[in-house]
User: What shape does this take?
Amino acid sequence: MNVATKPRRAPQMEPDDRRRQLLEVAIHVFAEMGIDRATHGHVAKAAGVARPTVFAYFPTREELVTGVLTAVHRYMIDELVAPFGTGETYEERMAASGKSFIDATDSHGDHIKIWLMWSANFSEPVRSQYLEFEEEMIDRLARHLIGDAAGAPDAALKERTLIFIGAVAVLAQMAVRGEPRIRLEQYVRNVIQTLKSWVS
Assistant: This one.
């Protein structure tokens, strides 16, 4: 006689650990499926848990999306922008930032993919969340650009920093599509040479 096997339950975890695990899985799912297509069900399947478990931590789709985008926001600002502040000269700071972004496509490729998708998403409230993130990123990068973490960048410097972010987005796209590292490093050197006249 065949006995139906019960589905295996996910191992018990502390609530904070479970939320962290679900968020990590959600970041991967969103990177693969896109911000607009990924659902609680996709996250549950990838995490090996029941859908109600995901809803328990992210009760609505908006909260799930916001959780993923907030994690990407924090990673980009705290882990990628920060190295731009190292180095004595503008060129050294630019080189540190370029290396950080290249390395990130290997270590945190899902975050980078979501950032690229996020920047081109015009649905609300996703767009508003991106514009808030972009403003913080511009401000932080601009202050590092002039070597003054406490300074107040003027409008012209913020505009130049926005162009720099565009160049970084191209670098990220090149890395995601598998361009050789030597090509990526050459691109960074070219950007540095092109933009170094911005600061004295």
